[in-house]
Amino acid sequence: MKSNRTYITKVSLIVALGGFIMGFDASVISGVLKFIVAKFELTDIQTGWAVGCITLTATLAMLVSGPLSDKFGRKKILKAAALLFAVSAFTSAMSNEFWFFIIARMLGGFGVGASLIIAPMYIAEISPPKMRGKMVSFNQLNIVLGLSAAFFSNYLILKLGNSDASWANSINLGENNWRWMLGIEALPAILYFIFLFIVPESPRWLAINGEEEIALKIMTKASGKELAIREIQAVKESVKSDVNKEKISLSELFKPAMRFVLLIGIVVAVLQQITGINSVFFYSTTIFEQTGVGEDASFTQAIYLGIINVLFTVLAMWLIDKIGRKPLLLIGVSGIAISMFVISASFSSATFQLDKASITELNKTIQEDRIFELDGKTYDSDIEFRNAINKVLGPEIAKKHGDNLIKSAININSVLVLVGILAFVASFAISLGPVMWVLLSELFPNRLRGLAISFVGFINSGVSFTVQLVFPWELANIGNAGTFLIYGAFAVVGLIFIVTLIPETKGKSLEELEKILVKSK
């Protein structure tokens, strides 16, 4: 039994390494953003594109990667994702034009979408029921480790680039810091591609495709002989029960038998993104800087997010097979709602005022004497203050220097904002982060799993792209307080759905869940 546990843990960790690269690839933009906005002179919507473009192609990849993995196997698609990560890291780091940067990042998005869908699917298909929740959660753990690694890597490159180290100067680490932040990802991507050669193909995929003998050998290593025989037999029976098994189409997901599980999958997928997690991660340094802390402090606080994310993801992995999926969702989504309301209230109570000393210092950069018209005036919201500087300085200057003016003018409890954001990340990490992917890997029947997870993942990623794209616009037009209030309201709606409709799935085999959740035809 111990050898089975060791084997499945090793395989799951290797496959979940794709989650690490995905997390790194997605969140590295938080440190890069400030520099590329200045280099490419981006508008609010272009800034949203720089962040969200990776999610756009991830959305497309999610739609096709499941069916492709059904046809060619889970392992081959994961290898392709690893190569895409490496190419994207190198080409985005070499970008000199915004359009080229976008294309390079979008290449990585295809890898993100594929790994996000296929890795948890693979792990669920090879894991025994009692370990499945924890093993699938390895993927989410690696995602948050990747997020944390990107935050730390960005901070380290920034500090070394600003140092007097001769080796750092010799490679232009200071001048090209954002290029190094992006390019470093190629190393784990190449390692992932190599490690994938030592893991087997998914035994359930092999059994579905007539390779029952090979599937049994792999499943025996993972679960023991007795359980392996039962699991493979259950897969065969599940497939045989579908008369038209060669004709799988999207329309099958919308048949009456699938309505309940599809509804759960879609709502949880939307809820995971619409509560604002990627706004917080991808724009973390921007959010922290808008509370008035400096550049170094904003990068340091982003590291705190990564640490909290890792710790609470580990806690979720420990609890998910003990207390179940639903209790974690209830605890976490409640925490998300409360945290967002705290952040919103903090920004709502902020005031904005520039004194003569700060104006004099700012004007060394802005070089526009009209700024002194703002001296001593107090504004009750960031929107009101933005409107004032736009009126006094004009749209062009206000756009270019608006964030620096806000940082200098704001009077806010920045500690409360930090605590609220850390609590939000902790609540997400113990619930929607890992639980969504565990649920998706469990809800759908064997024959439709690849297609169903791709479809739901497509919706999840589409919502994520939209949230990332409009976040800069929301800050500029709705304000910090209003934006975070909206996220909290969505969490409340999601909590009601969880209480009333989501079932518990822990401890049951995938085939047992299929009989329970998918209505008889």
Question: How would you portray this structure in words?
Answer:
Helices cover 78% and strands 1% of the residues. With 521 residues, the chain is mainly alpha-helical. Helix 5 (98-126) packs antiparallel against helix 6 and helix 17 runs antiparallel to helix 24 (479-501). The mean pLDDT is 83.
Determine the strand fraction and express it as a percent band.
under 5%
Question: Can you count the helices?
Answer: 25
Main beta sheet: strand number and arrangement?
3 strands, antiparallel
Radius of gyration: 24 Å
- Give the topology string: H per helix, E per strand: HHHHHHHHHHHHHHHHHEHEHHEHHHHH
Model regions low in confidence, pLDDT < 50 over at least 5 residues: none
- The percent range for helix content is over 70%
Give the count of structural domains. 2
Question: Which class of secondary structure composition applies to the elements?
Answer: mainly alpha
Quickly give the CATH architecture of the largest domain.
Answer: Up-down Bundle
Main sheet strand line-up: 2-1-3
Average pLDDT metric: 83
CATH topology of the largest domain: Growth Hormone, Chain: A
Q: How many angstroms does the end-to-end distance come to?
A: 38 Å
CATH class (first level) name of the largest domain: Mainly Alpha
Overall geometric form: globular
According to DSSP, the number of beta strands is 3
Task: Name the CATH superfamily assignment of the largest domain.
Answer: MFS general substrate transporter like domains
